[in-house]
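User: Here's a chain of 149 residues. Predict its fold as tokens.
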Amino acid sequence: MALRTTALSSALAAGFVLAACASDPGMDDADTRPRDFEDYQEDPRLGQRVDRICFGSQIDNFGETTNETVLLEAGADDWYLVHTFSCPDLDHAQSLSFDRFGSCLRQGDGIIPYDSAFGTDTAGPAPRSCQIRAIYEWDPTVTLEDGAY
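Assistant: Prediction complete.
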């Protein structure tokens, strides 16, 4: 099977940045923003570990990026927390593309973060791929009680 890269469209990628700020499915306060995967361990929004996000082409939104994690929305309101191996470029990503085999995004596949809302930027060095360590269901509708962190 050939390696396929799916890039989020530049028009939507620009909207992702705004959507992530306006309707962030992660934490709201910059001082309590998670820095790595361990910060999510007691989070009530974190669900079961899953093997894959199928129909990877339907991943149409992302938010709350850290050096190890990103929240991805696939389809209508299906959110996932993706845990990567340490990937400093992910923290400030404005658009993403995916290195994956087949139609599903799985452990071992890659997420390529771009610091431009328009994807690849030929002016700088090519961004490195962040290998996926694990994928978890995420429920942004669960409310956090005060003092949960």
